[in-house]
Structures
1.
Amino acid sequence: MTIRFAERMINVKPSAIRELLQLGADPAIISFGGGYPDASLFPLEQLNSVFQTAILDQGRDALQYTVSNGIPKLRAQIAERMAKEGIKCNQENVLILQGGQQGLDLVAKMMVNKGDLIITEDPTFLGALAAFNPYEPRYATVPMDKDGMDINALERTLAANLEAKFIYTVPDFQNPTGVTMSLSRRKELIELANRYDVVILEDTPYREVRFEGESLPPIKSFDTEDRVIYLGSFSKILAPGLRLGWAVASDDIAQRLTLLKLGADTQCSTLNMAAVSLFLDSFDIEPHIANIRQTYLRKKNLMLDTIRQTFPQEVSFTEPSGGMFTWLTFEYGFDAGRFMRERALPEAKVAYVPGAPFFAVEPKPNHARVSYSTQTDERIFEGISRLGRLLKTAVHQAKAS
Amino acid sequence: MTIRFAERMINVKPSAIRELLQLGADPAIISFGGGYPDASLFPLEQLNSVFQTAILDQGRDALQYTVSNGIPKLRAQIAERMAKEGIKCNQENVLILQGGQQGLDLVAKMMVNKGDLIITEDPTFLGALAAFNPYEPRYATVPMDKDGMDINALERTLAANLEAKFIYTVPDFQNPTGVTMSLSRRKELIELANRYDVVILEDTPYREVRFEGESLPPIKSFDTEDRVIYLGSFSKILAPGLRLGWAVASDDIAQRLTLLKLGADTQCSTLNMAAVSLFLDSFDIEPHIANIRQTYLRKKNLMLDTIRQTFPQEVSFTEPSGGMFTWLTFEYGFDAGRFMRERALPEAKVAYVPGAPFFAVEPKPNHARVSYSTQTDERIFEGISRLGRLLKTAVHQAKAS
């Protein structure tokens, strides 16, 4: 049976991560692939308590529809947290989202027509490309170093693309590289955006999971022209299964995004918003975040120490001050995807995310994203050691051949 | 300060309903506007129990990320419920959504490019237009009578628009009219869709809230060519604040929608999915639904009886067998929006939804949607009586002038 209507649907490419995660579902395999927070850190007792209050004491409201931008109380609480970060805003500037991810979709829906240009870091967050791609943009990419986006390269890109719609950046502990944009580059970035009249989409899911050094001001805190759309998330500081994030934007942009949110899914779960609002009221979230930071610092140190001890010299890696990832760079010509399929999975029983799909324009196969957040200390040591031994063998084999 | 980037964003029109609901926020006003279920029917104790189990016993999974199409257990439970409706499917055909509303967005995202044609009922669900409009479709509309879409008119529309992307229908107790598509028209509709090779988007949020007569088979149950995308919802049988609905579609379409869901918001709340799955396992939802039906039947009867007793003869209304709405038709030339602003709100302190925005192409101002689900019996009687008295006065004034 040939059905023509199928030809009239857009083609959607399966996510490379998704396919690899299916490979890594074998329990014998130690996976550093998924960008999952450590589930042992979820505050179950506290969450149970606030859900119980939300349902039994507030259920007639908390299980009903509410406004599309989210319950006012939680928006006010977020605005207050944002003020502490140097972002001037009130609850009307805050829009509650189905995770930060939904902000990527709605901003693209608001701004991008087929063929419009988005500027991304190179590499960039794969989920952002999944959100943007259905709107059929073109991409221009800006290389990164250990201080984030190369601002000179960005200026050349802006000068060559005056109609660029927005610059997408993950300034804190970027996914996939773990790199943080320096303070001076944050200031240069906002100046460039002002000069070239372009929107910045600042995505900060890992921002509060800084385990070393001082927190840097968000780009949005330098925004005097209402051109930064800031995205935050409860996924890494509370739990991703709640699906709650937020946008902070100008009144005008927040209203546009709210109307798009209304059409996209009406609103976020009233119950989950009510429960998180109660959580912020009833408990001090800061010691909880401090505990996450401490745990991830220990895991990051363990992973990087194990890499130093077991990996061949030819493999370099980033040193994140927060977040969940380090980024491996192999020698030119090394295909991390092929190596995983043909050797790491069958021989070392280890999975990671090959780096190629993180590049919006020109895939570079000699990279991999490795997450230290999900696995136990024992499995981090065991898995990274196994991968290191295999990589050393492979390097020797390559040199011998 | 003039910022050019704002000109590069799409224009989003505020929802007419939203503006009117803000007018109706005054507690002195009896609003029949919102399409809200009766919150006194939410099963708070049972929901509290399943959320507690989901968090305390399953929290490491239930608060973590999961697959984008939703937890397998809940998909299997929905597939089983669908089988009882005559829809052959398995859990791979089911995609959990952020309310049925998200299905409208994702189907439009999958199928609609700027200028593509969508066929809707006339009038149609306002939220569907809010979901479709950002993709900039054209619309063709098909008139309805008491048995749903006029199938002869639909055939003429299809013949004149061979490239139509899909037909959008709410066959059970339609929003806004409360009308149900007859069995024979359901069969004629699927035959026409097969002949003209077009997709049907069957949206059924009120389907299980039938309080009179026999349930009719879903259009999807007659689908032999995988061209019907079925949308269901827990909003009216459990609680809208959970934001859970589902799509049933062919393997191919379900996979495409899942990838779009991944980009749009990653997934629904794992916790809410786990809790609803536990609810379906732990409790019998059927007596709960029976209670909703009984309550809405009583309220519908009260509202329609009060309309019969108090409204002028010139106003006609639909007689729904389920759902939450009746649809008023005033004399030609009557402007229900203007009447609400200028008289019903200030004089009778009553709100409804003026009908004009429910028409995708040509707004007809002499209609209104009235919901009997939200208000208490006392307020239904009081509000409808006040509106009836005011309408009678208005009719007399119009005849006298």
2.
Amino acid sequence: MDENSIGYVIPTIASIKNPLKLLSGRVLSQYDLRYETYGSLNKDKSNAVLICHALSGNHHVAGYHEGEEKPGWWNNMIGPSKPIDTNKLFVVCLNNLGGCHGSTGPTSINPETNKTYGSDFPIITVSDWVTSQKELMSYLGIPFWKFVIGGSLGGMQALQWSFQYPELINNCIAIAAAPKLTAQNIAFNEIARQAIMKDPNWHNGNYLEKGVSPDQGLALARMLGHITYLSDESMREKFGRDLKTSKLNFNYDVEFQIESYLKYQGEKFVTGFDANTYMLMTKSLDYFDPIKDMSQSLIKNLQKSKSKFLIISFTSDWRFPPKRSKEIVKLLLDNERNVSYSEISADGGHDAFLMGNHDYFDIMRSFILESNNGI
Amino acid sequence: MDENSIGYVIPTIASIKNPLKLLSGRVLSQYDLRYETYGSLNKDKSNAVLICHALSGNHHVAGYHEGEEKPGWWNNMIGPSKPIDTNKLFVVCLNNLGGCHGSTGPTSINPETNKTYGSDFPIITVSDWVTSQKELMSYLGIPFWKFVIGGSLGGMQALQWSFQYPELINNCIAIAAAPKLTAQNIAFNEIARQAIMKDPNWHNGNYLEKGVSPDQGLALARMLGHITYLSDESMREKFGRDLKTSKLNFNYDVEFQIESYLKYQGEKFVTGFDANTYMLMTKSLDYFDPIKDMSQSLIKNLQKSKSKFLIISFTSDWRFPPKRSKEIVKLLLDNERNVSYSEISADGGHDAFLMGNHDYFDIMRSFILESNNGI
């Protein structure tokens, strides 16, 4: 266990009985949200932080689960005396609706049919997530978020909070995000979905009923994802053209180290992730387009928000490069918001938002400290 | 038919009886090469040009086949009064060994077994291609190439000619190429191969025996390829976030225009291409690494070559961006070669090498005119 660790943490379930009307028109009459909290809510309930996860993330953001060696996915960022300091802040993170880590999703039982949802689980949008996160907020008795923070798809949720419920959020931190996907981003997602849907074990999404899962397709999707998470440079440094053995195979077995790495990542991923959730998450990314969706009332919402914004990008991120973060900054400045922007020099590509980096952590720490004055 | 077209052209077969020892150690005792020629070989046989094709190209480079509406793949570049001027030059282009357009490849009958080669067809390297192209050169009675020209994988063959047979080439033009693949390039190729090999119709590469073909996997591979051929910018311009219909589907059918485009490209491709050839071509790309392979004798070869070099890159090409062409330029300058380099401003991404672009065509034309003085 690392120094300054939160230590052991235990997830909890919130059962929400309020029906949720989704953007698709479908209604979920009830649903569970699995979440973890770190630190304590202070007396005036003014120190709550929501962490939003990205495509393959979940509620286990920091600390350790009993019996597991690996900590939560943002353990370097969150903990006592870390940039998101659990000595001062009350951190909440949940597995998003539609996920496969304990919240209601495609692998859950549909109470109306008593069968696994499978492909019948509706597509959830970023806006739906924010609505469901607001339910969790009420459930926990939190009056407002001091910070909503996320990277990548998580950053999109943080932005959506400031558009959808501007009065409930004091500070928004969106890292390595974009205001909407480009055609290229959508193309990568579509190929991932096609890989899953072409797997003979897909069965139109109702694979669990058949006792199988489209692992080969999901592994391919994940391998492809990994290319977009790493930078060309970091792949070169890590793998270059190194071979597994000393000479060329002249066949189609794993040959270069990069092939071996991707194969391992694909195979590891499918042991803990559901294909329908992957499908749904990619679609949620494709659909996110608040500027287009922004009705006059949403723009007014944004304009009346008192939220401060911190937007962070990484130089080597080619999935959502700095220019995409700058589009967010422009949108906010055009609406006269209070924005800080930082472009961090880092080789790690899109995944840099998960990595320890001195400048990045310093900026997070100082923005949070400054915004958190008096707590 | 376009103005300045060569008009109708007819491919021919050269049956090579000289056994070819491949880099893998395997030997092809005989093989066919399908080729086309445009223009006429002059009296002193000093005006021959070899065009090398890329991954999915073939021998039909310019002019029209009877009954087909589409001309050859580089018809804008090659023809009477075009930059590669068939009034002055004798242009030769072949379907590479291992291809699926008439040259011996995985879909051919193995004379030793009287069965389709399928997966038993050996992996062919860039060096093997150049050796087989030299056989075609002898077959046609061509003493030397005035120009060897290619884009992408074709550019790698042009470079390989100048390393392998420096005395047989006067001018080398390598466009949108790289001196070797990066880990990211290899990763894309590997995912394409995995998509093909995970198709239930793959049958270890012997699908033709079963009367099927791994079309879904090959289509996925092609879709993925397309992302790397286009620039983010050109995709944005062409498709943006446009939808097929006026509102969101909330399902996994084709929804955005970019999805529709990729699907169409994938489906069209599999009607005319063989999966084993695709596998082999990607592997040939992965293996290309002349700097590493370059023994002292090869370096001496290069140093004694009298070839002039023209290296061209395109600003928006992220598959083989300008910095990769500059690596080639550096290698050549380090060996005191005569190099011209041009970085063309173009939005078309890697595919820009196939597109009409004023600056690009001007540079090609003037380099060829100057080098061709006196013919």
3.
Amino acid sequence: MSYIRKIEGCDDMFLRNSWYVFGWAKDLIPGGKPMGRVVIEQPIVVWRDAQGMLHAAEDRCPHRHAPLSMGRIKGNTIQCMYHGMTFRTDGRCVHMPLMDPAPDVTIRIYPVVEKDSWIWVWTGDCALADESFIPAAFGIDDVERPMKSNSIEYDAHYQLVHDNLCDLSHVDFVHDTTLRQASGAHWSETAPRIQSNRGAIRFQRWFEGADLPGQSGEKVDTWITYDFALPGIFILKGARYPLGTAQLCQQTEPVGLEPLMRNIEQQAVTPISKTRTAYHYATGLIGDTREMTRQLAERMDVVMAAFEEDRQMIEAQQRIWDLTDPATPKVFVPQDKGPHLMRRLIERSMRDEHDTVKATEIQASAV
Amino acid sequence: MSYIRKIEGCDDMFLRNSWYVFGWAKDLIPGGKPMGRVVIEQPIVVWRDAQGMLHAAEDRCPHRHAPLSMGRIKGNTIQCMYHGMTFRTDGRCVHMPLMDPAPDVTIRIYPVVEKDSWIWVWTGDCALADESFIPAAFGIDDVERPMKSNSIEYDAHYQLVHDNLCDLSHVDFVHDTTLRQASGAHWSETAPRIQSNRGAIRFQRWFEGADLPGQSGEKVDTWITYDFALPGIFILKGARYPLGTAQLCQQTEPVGLEPLMRNIEQQAVTPISKTRTAYHYATGLIGDTREMTRQLAERMDVVMAAFEEDRQMIEAQQRIWDLTDPATPKVFVPQDKGPHLMRRLIERSMRDEHDTVKATEIQASAV
Amino acid sequence: MSYIRKIEGCDDMFLRNSWYVFGWAKDLIPGGKPMGRVVIEQPIVVWRDAQGMLHAAEDRCPHRHAPLSMGRIKGNTIQCMYHGMTFRTDGRCVHMPLMDPAPDVTIRIYPVVEKDSWIWVWTGDCALADESFIPAAFGIDDVERPMKSNSIEYDAHYQLVHDNLCDLSHVDFVHDTTLRQASGAHWSETAPRIQSNRGAIRFQRWFEGADLPGQSGEKVDTWITYDFALPGIFILKGARYPLGTAQLCQQTEPVGLEPLMRNIEQQAVTPISKTRTAYHYATGLIGDTREMTRQLAERMDVVMAAFEEDRQMIEAQQRIWDLTDPATPKVFVPQDKGPHLMRRLIERSMRDEHDTVKATEIQASAV
């Protein structure tokens, strides 16, 4: 499957020097059961110690390669529940039954950060892990703008999910009776303004005269801005304004105007393997809190239905790709600008990563 | 798996220049949801336009290779429900949001025919598609001889299903308590007369003194004729006559005699892939209409049970083949004459097809 | 997957010249339905004739390679239920419909033995099949010491199951709330004495001051001895003695002393394929019969729960192995002595088997 153009000398399908969303921070409780997941084919375990601090390590006990995620947290250690080998949070083995001292062995520790309600793990060279690379999101626990969250998995290559997020014209078709109707807009009839910018792509657009759902005949102007950031983060802000605002703003960003209501979306695509992908998403509304609570529950139903629609379409698309000679051409249309920029962004990043690794190797061999 | 002898220079497992049964015509309604299926590893979509006319195309939108079978029919077009690309029934793209004119692209159209209640698609060179090649069947909607129909799938190579149909001695064993009992005959104790004839194999036989099921002790002579036609069509006619008729006819076909009752079977084997096969079948009785209606419902129960027996045997056989060195010999017995002729028929047809393709290539390169 | 060190010139993953446990003898009734299972990738059918005698053959009819396990037993023959080919218990074909004489063909017969409630099949060179190689077990039908039995399957390589049985320190972790509690002992805190001896490994140990489960505060000394024998048989005997007995015996085997109670375990690991493994186990208690009956039912619940715990751990371990470069090192700890001896035992046996086959080939070519 030729999802991205091959980088010369590079066999990899995944960016490694990246922060990936591992899951929702709320799903791990202090001292509770650790969580094991596979990220870009690497088994990783994440847990909180008794103080609530996050830790991440390879999910593989160096003794017999059993998963540490089936283990238990004891104070500041994680213990493999196959034969009892125990590790400190710096990866060092500190206990093995019948051995004193404990064997001189460590497990790989992953940089891990909790930010905006997500757990982020860095899968590449630790020396390069810089938290400032983590793209900004909202977080789901802000009482001013509560969000509802969920996680699903796709039987598809992650780039097919990226494609989906970088071309929202599909809302009119895949989500005809869900998100399109809830948005009151027609997503395929006008094109967003797209700008590429250092590891991210920004999409902006006005929908003039959009329907206000549930209010028959009422019209609004809706401003939408969304960002796709590496390795697969999608952040959307929507805001509804009185009819005529788009013209008033000369079709540009409405600055300093108070919208009638806002919605926000926070989504992350994390490759599990070449054939399976995790998707962690949340949706929120901003406005009068009591009214919003009811509306947010309704919206979450729509969003969950819509992502099920995406899952069905993308998995069906994957099955067709599996039956298709990779050399079979695909027609390029204006809507592909976003997916195309995303693909070039990944290719460029993979090339950078490849060159960095090679440079490091040359440096190492010179020493 | 060496199901057929390899044709030199030919990697293929399937006949391509063939009419395959795609499914039952009744399952598509005018302007309704299109149907996507895989035939010999080709994803194909079939739909009816508002006038009820059938159309078939590759089930792959040329934009992002999403399946058109998840699309919708709009008048005389089919629209991909991923991003809205729309095609005429001649395959030409006539609409893409944000593009005017629409992109100059077409999808592959498959010759498609409705005949005898089946939808037939031609998977090879369109120039060679000739409807007269379609073998005759009965159709299930004839009020004089109504049939009941069903479709199932096997986790097995299609040739193992062909084998099953070309050697009905298995009725005595696989269908001991179902079809054998319903037939009142012993299928393994005598051999049918077998003739091979231009893309088809005809089997004919008398069962003398067969039991009339449900009528204790009553005996009849039963004449059975069945045809296996490429690429996998099986048509059977059975007729019960008074005891002694076989002798009266000197063991040959009873011409001009009115039978006591008749049954008919219409079956199609369509390869999905090398490991999965579709099976579309119907059964019918001919006689006094009211009585037949009740009996037909009972017969359909027997037939459905019997084909479940076949499925279990053939899938179990496939699992043994998967565990077996393909070089392991198989014992040839008289019962294999039918399967052997079928195999030679397919080999010859594949060789013809291979030679035709080569000849076309030589011609093309000479031009 | 590098589960064992490769034997030079030998591609095999399995010992062949071995008696494998096929299943429980009680599951086959005289003249009843034959049973088909896959042992080291070989499809095998076992049945009892009308006299109750066991027979084993390749589960593959030489006609069309359908499984004989879907066939039926007729007197002293087994008949394929696809087309009726019938075989004597010496493998010779004695009947085929429409053929007289029957075709001159035989199926491979496997040496098969019923011993200690198990059915054993020999998968290698018949000339080498010697029943005295079968390791001793208990049998589940002895009225003096009744056992309860079960069979499960693992999605894992058989050596991961062997590892599990050869290092019972895992009882403290995997079976913390089941077997560990039921044993009243701490399995990871002391090491057993381990001796390797001609195709088997013996483990022996005292647990001093173990809890007597259900009797709060009461303490006993428990003597455990268990054997792992090729190709994957595990036999355990446990006996509880009054506190102080271990000291009295100077930590050696208690000879001639009557224990308070005993338990016995009989387990067999049989590879199905490189990725799937069968596990046939039984548990028994020895003591006052009426009281034991109730306790045995309870114990069987604990044992079944424990082997489900093993299954979850071992299958999770297998998934990690599947994601791991086989060159990744594993830390060797004292607990690995048992698994290590087991691995060396298998390697040595595979080398012997390989040399035997080569010697036979040289001898054959010299003749």
